[in-house]
Amino acid sequence: MRRREVLQILATGAGLQLAPPKLLIFLREARALIETHSSLRTLNAHQDATVIAMAEMIIPRTDTPGATDVGASAFIDLMLTEWYDGDDRQRFLKGLADVDSQTRGLFGKDFVECAAAQQADMLRALGEKMIEEAAEQSRVEHEFPADASFYPMLRRLTLTAYYTSEAGATDELHFEIIPGRFVGCQPASPIKEVPQQK
C-alpha cells in the first residue's frame, strides 16, 4: 500500500474495522516502528508537549486509557516523519505554532501553559472552525472535504493512533482478532479409490 493511499483512507475517516487488510498491516508495522525510535524526529519538545496536551483532551483517560497512555504523540511524530509530504508536514507544524500564537493573544501564554478551561475553549474554537470549513467546502465542491486546516489533521491522527493501539482496539472497539483454524501434523487418511466407469 502506498503512502498516498494510506493518507486518503485516513482522511475519509474510514472505520478501521472496515479498512482494507493492507491498511491494518501498515498500521501494525507503524506501531512496531514507534518502539524502535526513542527520540522525536519531526516534533521538537515544545511541539510534542502541545500535541500530548491536545490529544489527551480529544481522548481523555477515563475508565479506559487516554491518548497519552497509548503513545499518540509518538505515533503522530512517526506519521509526520515517515508518511506526510513536506507541505502537509509544514501545515501541521504551522498549525501548532498558530495555536500558541492564538493562546498568547487570548491568554498571554502558550497552549501548554494555559489552564484546562482555557485549553478547552481553544479546542472548542478549533472544532467550530473545522466544522464551518468542512460545511463550506462540501457545499461548494459537493464532495467529502479535504483538510483545510491543522485541527482536522490532528484529530484524525489522534483517533488513528488511539484506535490502532491495543488498548483502543480492544477496550473501546472490542475488536477481536480471531485467527482461522489451523490443525498441524494431522495423519493422512488413506485415499479411497473411486471405481472408474466404463
Proportion of β residues?
under 5%
| Radius of gyration, in angstroms, nearest whole number | 22 Å
> Major sheet: size, sense and barrel closure?
none
Q: Helices and strands: which structural class? A: mainly alpha
- Tally of separate helices: 8
Kindly state the percentage of residues in helix: 55-70%
Mean pLDDT: 79
**Count of DSSP E strands?**
0
User: Low-confidence runs (pLDDT<50, min 5 residues)?
Assistant: 1-18
What's the order of the H and E elements? HHHHHHHH
Distance between the termini: 54 Å
Describe this structure as you would to a colleague.
It contains eight helices and no strands. With 198 residues, it is mainly α. The protein has one domain (3-172).
Main features:
single chain, 198 residues, mainly alpha, 60% helix, elongated, disordered N terminus
List the helices and strands and how they pair.
Elements: H1 3-11, H2 21-36, H3 45-58, H4 72-82, H5 86-107, H6 116-141, H7 150-163, H8 166-172
Helix pairs in contact: 2-4, 3-4, 4-7, 5-7
Quick summary:
With 198 residues, this protein is mostly helical. It has eight helices and no strands. The N terminus is likely disordered.
